[in-house]
Every structure is written in structure tokens, then in C-alpha cells.
Backbone:
């Protein structure tokens, strides 16, 4: 009898912990902070195109396959070229606003200019929320940029995404001005490593 009861408790706990990842609610927000309801947007579904068509026969609502494994040693990371193209997000949102479209166009043009270059999109968050939640939100922000670039004609197989959550702030201020800067996607060009000249 005790064994059955213990099994039920362990099973219920396992189900709870499994379903707790990437919650839709923001947790661990500092008390006293108030955020306008309009700033809290729905996060789009993961891994789907929001609109338009993309190369390779992808269509809206169809999952985008993950980019092939890239060996870091085989690429030269270029953080400078697209440093001014960083896009920013509203609080608790992975929705790309129209004001950020020109930056995405610039990223798209850079990729179109050199078919050999690939792209890394780094998703970042402010300090609010748990580590786990921010990892998920950063991932969704990076995927949103990848999907937007796919609608601009970039093959999504050329784009890798990574989430740093709240681990890489660029602004250390603990106020809205700092948090706004940290809710972002950074774009890094990955050039093929041609090796030493012979």
C-alpha cells in the first residue's frame, strides 16, 4: 500500500516537473514593477514561418528544419559587420516589431551578398524571470529572427540560433533603459575558414 502511494506521489511530481519547463507565465518578476498590458505580447509558435514563402519549399506554418551541425573551428566569427543591426523586443515578447524590419533587411542583404557566409542569431533577455524561462524566451526570439529572414528569401539552413537568456547583458543598469537594451537578438556572420595561405 505504501509502495503504491509513494509511486503515485513520485509520478505526480515527475509530471509536474516535466510540464513546468517554458511556462507561459513570467515568473520571478520583482515586486513593485508594473508593466503595461500592451507590452506583454504573445510569443509566436516555435519553428514556424509567420508569413510568406521561403527557399527550399518551406511554407507558412511548416516546421523549419534545423541547420546542419557546424564546426566552430571551421568558421571565422564576425561580430562587427552586423553590430548595428541588433533588433530589440518588448518585455516578455518574441514578436518582431515593424520598427526592427530595416535591421532585418540589412542582415538579409549581407547574407545575399555572400552565399558562402552563414549566420548565428543570439537571443538575449533582461534580468527578469527565471534562468529557465529566459533560456526559452531567448530561443524564441532567435527563432523569430530566423523565420523572418526566411520570409526575406534567406535559406534557413544557413542560420543557427542560440539563446543566452539573461547571461550576456550589454547594459548593467537595473532600470527600464538597461532592460530594453538587453532584450535583443545579435547577429554574427560566420565566414568559412580558408586556412593559412600556402
Residues:
Amino acid at each position: 500500500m505504501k509502495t503504491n502511494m509513494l509511486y503515485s506521489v513520485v509520478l505526480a511530481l515527475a509530471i509536474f516537473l516535466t510540464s513546468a519547463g517554458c511556462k507561459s507565465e513570467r515568473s520571478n518578476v520583482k515586486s513593485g514593477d508594473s508593466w503595461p498590458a500592451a507590452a506583454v505580447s504573445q510569443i509566436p509558435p516555435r519553428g514556424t514561418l509567420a508569413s510568406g514563402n521561403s527557399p527550399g519549399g518551406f511554407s507558412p506554418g511548416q516546421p523549419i528544419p534545423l541547420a546542419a551541425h557546424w564546426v566552430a573551428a571551421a568558421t571565422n566569427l564576425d561580430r562587427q559587420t552586423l553590430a548595428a543591426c541588433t533588433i530589440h523586443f518588448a518585455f516578455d515578447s518574441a514578436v518582431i516589431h515593424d520598427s526592427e524590419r530595416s535591421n532585418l533587411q540589412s542582415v538579409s542583404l549581407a547574407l545575399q551578398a555572400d552565399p558562402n557566409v552563414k549566420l548565428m542569431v543570439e537571443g538575449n533577455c533582461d534580468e527578469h524571470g527565471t534562468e529557465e524561462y529566459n533560456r526559452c524566451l531567448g530561443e524564441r526570439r532567435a527563432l523569430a529572427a530566423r523565420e523572418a529572414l526566411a520570409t526575406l528569401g534567406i535559406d534557413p539552413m544557413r542560420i543557427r540560433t542560440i539563446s543566452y537568456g539573461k547571461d550576456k547583458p550589454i547594459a548593467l543598469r537595473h532600470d527600464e533603459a538597461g532592460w530594453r537594451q538587453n532584450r535583443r537578438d545579435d547577429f554574427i556572420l560566420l565566414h568559412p575558414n580558408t586556412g593559412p595561405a600556402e
Observations:
- The beta strands are 75-78, 87-88, 118-124, 159-165, 184-192.
- The domain at 68-198 is CATH 3.30.1330.60 (60s Ribosomal Protein L30; Chain: A;).
- The chain is about 30% helix and 15% strand.
- The longest helix spans residues 131-151.
